[in-house]
Amino acid sequence: MGRASVELESWLLTLWLLLCSWGCLASAELRAPPDKIAIIGAGIGGTSSAYYLRQKFGKDVKIDVFERQEVGGRLATLNVEGQDFEAGGSIIHPLNLHMKRFVKDLGLSTVPASGGLVGVYNGETLVFEESSWFIINMIKLVWHYGFQTLRMHMWVEDILDKFMRIYRYQSHDYAFSSVEKLLHAVGGDDFLGLLNHTLHETLQKAGFSEKFINEMVAPIMKVNYGQSTDLSAFVGAVSMTGADSGLWAVEGGNKVVCSRLLKASKGNLISGSVMFIEEKTRTKLTGNPTKMYEVVYQTGSETLSDFYDIVLVATPLNQKMSNITFLNFDPPIEEFDQSYQQIVTTLIKGELNSTVFSSRAKDQFGLSTVLVTDNSDLFINSIAIVSPVREEENPLPSTDGTYVWKIFSPDVLSKKQIMKYFLSYDYAVKKAWRAYPLYKPPQKCPSIILHDRLYYVNGIEFAASAMEMSAIAGYNAALLAYHRWNGNADMIDQDGLYEKLKTEL
Ligand SMILES: Cc1cc2nc3c(=O)[nH]c(=O)nc-3n(C[C@H](O)[C@H](O)[C@H](O)COP(=O)(O)OP(=O)(O)OC[C@H]3O[C@@H](n4cnc5c(N)ncnc54)[C@H](O)[C@@H]3O)c2cc1C
Ligand SMILES: *[C@@H]1O[C@H](CO)[C@@H](O)[C@H](O)[C@H]1NC(C)=O
Ligand SMILES: *[C@@H]1O[C@H](CO)[C@@H](O)[C@H](O)[C@H]1NC(C)=O
Ligand SMILES: *[C@@H]1O[C@H](CO)[C@@H](O)[C@H](O)[C@H]1NC(C)=O
């Protein structure tokens, strides 16, 4: 007995040594991590990049995150009489798995983001009105549109189903060097085709009626992307998921995810505006001349600069939005002049003039969201009752019986325009955004790799702009930067991943 166990022990020791030597060899092959990484932009794209870069490169790398305005970027709140409301990115889909995991890992909570009845107004009349009875909605929908609603649901579900493959690829550490390759890996040529065609022509070809596209699909594009059904079919599908049930938001405001990610990543926030990026050769402490990126930024009236091994740009590269100049790159880094759609969010506390939409008596109006068709010729894209970021139940009227309404519009609303929709109001705040790209298929996405160790996170917005898309892009950029740093070519742009990972546990 004793002997056998000694033998077993020595055998285990040998095995352990063998395993260790493999382990040690493998880690000896890993290049030392970079000293410093810069991320430009502290929205969800930049802060999720910081979070994943920390996971990949370990505790020693210094991560600086530059932000010239507020952490959160297009996730922000506006205050109405002491309560905060989402002013930018608001709703999150139940299958947005990165956002879901952030909330869980960062100890945050969620609040339901939907509720209330929806109507569609065409400029003259309500062409569709939701009822609080599920069965009545079904009958209404079938009556108006046959089974197109159901088919639409299946069309979207099929795209979403494929898109979800990205989570499996990312959990196995695979990265992609372009948005097109990422989309191809999840859905093949069919997916790339969705970037090349308008939603309108895609749905027409699939047999959906003009009436259905105009009354059911167009209003959803308008509220989510401020654009017509001439946007590309991929972003169209992403937008349609915004009509699913189970939508949620982060309690306390979606932007809290960004500040928590930044904290968890131990990133160093630098309040400043990046002006220039230039590649220069530096002699590091180790004595070797190394190519690094100099990041020149302005804080207050001071202009400062610092050197980085890796730089991630996590803001739209657009002169009006980020105004970053790439100096002396050979070949030069292409100009990105794709324009962004302006959207103005206006929050109004007041009493709606429901007669604008319906002749029914005020107390029988009952809708809490009015969407509009494309031909409605109105100056608003949508109007809806909203709940504060800390409220768990459906919105309640304040003591004077009024609600807080959110209007999206392409332009800033005048007092007179607001008064068209309200009997009276006592409070209005607004925020104008360059909200998301103006989608014009065939849609090309900007490169992710701008230069050797210089990456662009926001190119993914040209496929579709959403919080989850930025989180996916942030993860991808972190993985890509890591694998390229370590020369792991076999982890980048792999074909047939779906088949390959299907058999793996
Ligand atoms: C009105 C509106 C409604 C939306 N609704 C939804 C929704 O319901 N659901 C959803 O999923 N998505 C929604 N979106 C989209 C979503 O908000 C965005 O896709 C997402 O927030 C983009 O995050 P980002 O980090 O990529 O970019 P941003 O949030 O824009 O972050 C970029 C950051 O970089 C900073 N920056 C820029 N230039 C510099 C510089 N030179 N130096 C330093 N810092 C710089 C900016 O100040 C900014 O904070 C909505 C957007 C808007 C505007
Ligand atoms: C999409 O259009 C581009 C031209 O804009 C073309 O090069 C590409 O092959 C098309 N892709 C698909 C999948 O149709
Ligand atoms: C962009 O930056 C340059 C140089 O930093 C500056 O001269 C110019 O005014 C800026 N443009 C905008 C639109 O902010
Ligand atoms: C409410 O809207 C209707 C229809 O636009 C309009 O006729 C009416 O004057 C408005 N009421 C008030 C009090 O503004």
UniProtKB/TrEMBL annotation:
Keyword set, alphabetical order: FAD, Flavoprotein, Glycoprotein, Lysosome, Oxidoreductase, Signal
SUPFAM superfamilies: FAD/NAD(P)-binding domain
Pfam families recorded: NAD_binding_8, Prenylcys_lyase
EC identifiers of the protein: 1.8.3.5
A Gene Ontology BP annotation from the UniProt entry: prenylated protein catabolic process
Cellular localisation: Lysosome
Main location: other
Gene3D superfamilies: FAD/NAD(P)-binding domain
GO CC annotations, alphabetized: lysosome; very-low-density lipoprotein particle
Cofactor: FAD
Domain (Prenylcysteine lyase) ranges: 128-494
Family the entry assigns: Belongs to the prenylcysteine oxidase family.
Biological role: Prenylcysteine oxidase that cleaves the thioether bond of prenyl-L-cysteines, such as farnesylcysteine and geranylgeranylcysteine. Only active against free prenylcysteines and not prenylcysteine residues within prenylated proteins or peptides. Involved in the final step in the degradation of prenylated proteins, by degrading prenylcysteines after the protein has been degraded.
The protein's name: Prenylcysteine oxidase 1
Taxonomic placement: Eukaryota, Metazoa, Chordata, Craniata, Vertebrata
